[in-house]
Amino acid sequence: MMRRAASALFGLAVGLGLGLLYAWMISPIQYTDTTPDSLRADYQADYIQLVARSFAIDNDLERAHARLTALGEAGSAQSVTALAQRTAASGGEVETVRSLAALAAALGARPASPTPNANAATTELPGPTATPEPAATTQSTVIPSPTAAPTGTPAPSGGFEFVGKETVCDPKLAQPLIQVVTLSRDGSQTPGVEVVVEWDGGFDHFFTGLKPELGAGYGDFAMTPGLIYNVRLAADPSAVVTGLAVENCADNSGKTYPGAWQLVFREK
Amino acid sequence: MSRASVLTFVVFLALGLAGGLYFGWVVSPVQYVDTVPFSLHQSYKDDYILMIAAAYSGDGDLDAARARLTALGFDDPGPAVAAAAQRLIAADQPEADLRRLAPLAAALDAVTPELQPYLP
Description:
The complex is a heterodimer of chains A (268) and B (120).
Chain A: H1 2-26, H2 41-58, H3 61-69, H4 77-89, H5 94-109, H6 136-142, E1 160-168, E2 177-183, E3 194-199, E4 202-207, E5 218-222, E6 229-233, E7 236-244, E8 248-250, E9 256-258, E10 260-267
Helix pairs in contact in A: 2-3, 2-5, 4-5
Chain B: H1 3-27, H2 42-59, H3 62-71, H4 77-90, H5 95-107
Helix pairs in contact in B: 2-3, 2-4, 2-5, 4-5
């Protein structure tokens, strides 16, 4: 009896081992008809860039959304925004950043639909300027509604003109900012516009539309107290604002805190 | 070893084998999470090619288009673009898509007679 039990156990173990060897090593399940959500991260990023480039050409938001949905969570609007920010920070092609920003802005303005992505948890990745979000009430006083749907033609054909600037006093801002809003001729916000910030001994650049939750044409830059900044649009050097320095605001008790400059540019 | 023991061994070997295969193929199959575009389903490959063609129509960068097509597993991308175009024609896809595919096929020397009408 003991011998038969030992044989049974031995047979089972050998059979199980052989079965697993065959199933995992010799003939594993072949995935030849995969979906984009299984792509390696760098290929997913390339896929998103292609979706954005296509969107810039065909202006078909539903199609872009369907393509991104195939990526699962990696295709969320936040992921597109994060990719745009990473691409901009790493000095990627301007056209790519522009198209990603336009797509992110368009997805942000898109009505929510019950897709698997709509409720997906997303990871906030650090952008080129990790700045605090200005209060919505501050935004609404000057900036046209972010729900003004951006188009898929992000590259403005003409130049820009400087419309105006004002100080934004918001105690919630942890640091002084230069906030830039770019508008199209019809007044809707325009994403993907490159903004150059220069100061004595340095310069930097950023793109509008990489924080679509604050507006499709919104972008900002953290100021350093004591420096004087000039701000211009890369697409139109004539659209320039000079001599910006940190402006202090005061609350009701007289306590001061750094404010922000808000600059608005409009397409000619 | 008695005959009964051998029989028991063989029976349980078969049971173990079946159990191993079931576990390896059904319960816990090999997971592919970092795949390459080459493994995509044909419909996704065609859409990928279409997006590459759209990007090419915007920037005219043939080298970039060729590199992306190579990542899809096409060492000779021209015929692959032409074949994708044929499938899209057969599937009655929008003419605008074919008008983006045709120039890419032409740039890759792979224009078929069916694609001729969609060339600029």
